[in-house]
Write a structure and sequence with these properties.
305 residues, alpha/beta, D-Maltodextrin-Binding Protein, domain 2, 5-stranded mixed β-sheet, 4-stranded mixed β-sheet, 12 helices, 48% helix, WH-like_DNA-bd_sf, DNA-binding
């Protein structure tokens, strides 16, 4: 098995016909068929069901394709890096973020960075912390924002933000007249919660047990953006990451401090011993100033309401 076999397999998975795969590779249909057959023989896998004259990928083919695509992503990054060396003004910086920072916050970061480097493209990936961490470790991403609840030992990690959760209330809610929401205030109220594993990580499970809130939970979600949307629709009361709260400043959502505090800790991770980059340094500075601006806007909203 060599790169020719993998290229033929990938082209066939992407196009689903030997004719189109041959066009992509600049070769003949028979060559594509032979290479894929050789791959099946060498791996002892049946990658395509050839019944009724059609090529239908098997479960093994889909599993292999996922791994192939991961490898190709790395090759694409190498190719991109080489092009950036030749023309640094046309660089692409790939970054990743957990969802709480991946919406309004990063849109504002991109606007600020673009003002400094109009020719440099930012490519943003949002997702779970472990996904972002893995892509940083493999140099698919130059920088990532993740929670402190995962293992980041294989990266260079520094603290980016440690912020207390904010209580979010529907517009017109009776508790909106309070400047600080406390545990006792929530008795009898419909509560929105996070998934159990996230509650454990953030210490919310202990809080819920103390306030006997579990029986009041009416809905759960994984991300702050989902909790905020449900609060807006008057499903219940929830807690938001302060940066996610920024995404709701144009709505009539009521934001209040909550006691006792529940901190969200976010880390900035980069690949180990990454090469110095002035553009990446500028991006980090924009991220830091944007965080200050976002938190200031959220604070102003809580004081004004």
């Amino acid at each position: 098995m060599d790169f020719r076999h993998i290229d033929a397999f990938r082209a066939l998975m992407l196009t689903r016909t030997t004719t189109k795969a041959a066009q992509v590779l600049g070769t003949s249909q028979s060559a594509v068929s032979r290479l894929v057959a050789d791959l099946e023989r060498s791996t002892r896998l049946t990658l395509f069901d050839r019944a009724r004259g059609r090529l239908e990928p098997t479960a093994e083919a889909f599993a292999l394709f996922e791994e192939v695509e991961r490898r190709y992503a790395g090759l694409d990054n190498i190719r991109e890096f080489a092009l950036n060396l030749r023309n640094p003004d046309k660089a692409v910086i790939r970054v990743g973020s957990v969802v709480s920072f991946g919406l309004g916050f990063f849109a504002r970061v991109m606007a600020g960075f673009r003002a400094m480097h109009p020719s440099v493209q930012l490519a943003l990936t949002t997702g779970a912390s472990d996904l972002i961490r893995d892509q940083v470790v493999t140099h698919q991403l130059a920088l990532g924002l993740v929670t402190n609840t995962i293992d980041v030992a294989a990266t260079d990690a520094v603290s980016f933000a440690k912020l207390d959760a904010i209580c979010a209330l529907p517009a017109g809610h009776p508790l909106a007249r309070k400047k600080v929401i406390r545990l006792a205030d929530l008795k009898g109220q419909p509560i929105l919660s996070y998934e159990p594993t996230d509650m454990v990580r953030w210490g919310m499970d202990q809080l819920f047990a103390e306030g006997n809130l579990h029986q009041q939970v009416v809905a759960t979600a994984r991300y702050s953006i989902n909790i905020g949307t449900m609060v807006k629709e008057n499903v219940g009361i929830g807690w938001l990451h302060p940066v996610s709260a920024y995404d709701f400043l144009d709505s009539d959502l009521v934001l209040r401090r909550f006691e006792p505090s529940m901190p969200f800790h976010t880390l900035r991770v980069t690949p180990r011993a990454a090469a110095p980059s002035a553009q990446l340094d500028d991006l980090v500075r924009v991220m830091e100033t944007t965080l200050e601006d976002v938190l200031r806007a959220v604070e102003a909203r809580m004081k004004a309401a």
